Amino acid sequence: MTAMSDALLEVRGLKVGFPTPEGLVRASDTVDLEIYPRETLGLIGETGSGKTVLGMAILRLLQPNTIIEGEIRYRGRDLLSLPEAEMQRVRGREIGIVLQNSGTSLNPVYTVGTQIAEAVTLHQGLSGPDARQRAVELLDAVGIPDPVRMAGEYPHRFSGGMRERALIATALACRPNLLIADEPTKGLDAVTKRGIVDLFSEIDRDHSVLFITHDIETAGDLATRVAVMYAGEIVEIGGAEEVLGDPAHPYTRGLLASLPERGMQPIPGSAPSLITLPSGCRFSPRCGCAVENCSREHPGLVEVGSGHYARCMLYD
Amino acid sequence: MHKKIVLAASLGIVFAYCAVALLAPVIAPYDPHAITGAPLSPPDRDHLLGTNDLAQDIFSGLIWGTRATLLLGFVGAAIAVTVGTAAGIVSGYYGGLIDEAVMRLLDVAMTIPIFPLLLILTTFFRPGIYLIAVLMGLLGSFQGVRLIRSQVLSLAVADFVVGTRALGAGDGYIMARHILPGVLPLAGVKFVTSAQHFMLIGIGLGFLGITDPSVVDWGQMINRASQNGAMILGLWWWLIPPGLAVTLISLALAWLGYACEDEINPRLRVMRV
């Protein structure tokens, strides 16, 4: 893929590894992707495929002993080489993130309003009542009813969907250019999920969004482009319609075939351990189309259509 | 219900002692150092608790002595808890080498018995009540570091801490705003139990005569009484009141500590139901 200079965020050759007593966990291996202004990139993959790690790595939120290589360019600046103080100004203000586990992502000892106001106070220096006012506006903007009262409530009084909204409000507080949302629809019922998806379709008019999910349908609803991750690698990336309508990689096809409305056929086997990865193509042990060469050579991303790439021997 | 009575009683006793300490000049009828009549006179209307061998009023000594004991206990505990909490938060939050260094230092420090070390240190410096309080506070902060650190270890990896970092907050901000409130209840209990501990140590130092001689304290009173044969001569008014005063405040603080611990530790609460 050629580097495009008009991308808001460019990830180049990103490798993330966690040293463990059992060996190095390669949670992300040579990931390349870019996010353009005002687009939503859907990042799809199973649990453990490295989606969350990728999102956290962009904001350097991983544990200090994590090994990170490669480049993460935000508007041309490499985030991985920024000093911590500079990075703090990027977090929240330039790039916001909605973390997974909305249930525990709010501090139980402060009211929701106080915590949203925190973001505003940290970056815009607004004080007490002004920050408070902004917090109420933000809660209103993400669709919390009676925002003045709810701003004064503690997180345990919020339902799952409302907490998710509150976290989105926090992440949007300083109007970041890029919003990373890590499984914001996880664990929500269908109606609540619909509400969150609608909220995101409003948000992505003004913001670039990296929408991390294992929910293919949601990704299809929101994303302009989609990237599919498997075992720490991007195996397919391209326009949402192309990737989900005419998938090139056997893994993406398998994912789609496992949807309930498409016959619910699971992909045989299970995802490999990120410590001992299969040789050659990482999906080959589970792949129905695998040929002999698949377990020997590691395929690169091959262009299969306009802006549509797949990591598979079939197209070599 | 029983627990509430204990809590109220212990709080009442602690507040009463504080009031006495603050109002000592008003309550005490005499200067505790002044010669006020006949030596060794038993309690009467002029001397509520009699006089000692130097004809000093024991009741006044008891009242003024409250100051020294409370001051040692509370100043010492405040220093111990502040130092312990700060070190525990930094150690637990940063982890890695910093944590390792603090923990190994503590391992060494905790093998040193505090009381004998205090004895030695106070003989090197000119003994003053604040100096003793500070020394006690610093030496007594070790256990607190471990206690607080263990709590911080779980708080430091909480999702809301990562979330706050994701908003662009620095380490100092996170420790002050999101870690500290989580350990405050524990620090509060530690303050109460430390205060009790330090008061007893203070009495012990006074009894051994290693305190500020210009300050009246119960330890010195007990020392003087026992040295001069109060026990054998049956001069109960000389020996018993300071002893009772120590016992009562010590018990009250212990009860208060247990009551607070009960309140913040859900596991204890279930056990006692």
Notes on the protein architecture:
The complex is a heterodimer of chains A (316) and B (273). Chain A has one domain: P-loop containing nucleotide triphosphate hydrolases (Rossmann fold, 3-Layer(aba) Sandwich). Chain A starts with 8 loop residues before the first strand and ends in a 6-residue tail after the last strand. Chain A is an alpha/beta fold. Chain A is globular, with a radius of gyration of 20 Å. Helix content of chain A is 30%, strand content 24%. Chain A is built from ten helices and twelve strands. Chain A has helices at 51-58, 84-90, 112-124, 128-141, 147-151, 160-172, 190-203, 216-222, 240-245, 250-257; strands at residues 9-20, 23-35, 40-45, 67-74, 77-78, 95-98, 178-182, 208-213, 225-230, 233-239, 302-305, 308-310. In chain A, strand 9 and strand 10 form a beta hairpin. Chain B is mainly alpha-helical and 273 residues long. Chain B has one domain: MetI-like fold (Orthogonal Bundle), CATH 1.10.3720. Helix content of chain B is 76%, strand content 0%. Chain B has helices at 2-22, 24-27, 58-94, 96-109, 114-124, 129-139, 142-156, 159-166, 171-207, 218-227, 230-233, 236-264, 266-272. In chain B, helix 3 packs parallel to helix 7 (142-156) and helix 5 (114-124) runs antiparallel to helix 6. The longest helix of chain B is centred in the N-terminal third of the chain and has 37 residues, at 58-94. The model of chain B has no long low-confidence stretch (mean pLDDT 89). Chains A and B meet through helix 2, helix 3 and helix 6 of A and helix 8 and helix 9 of B.
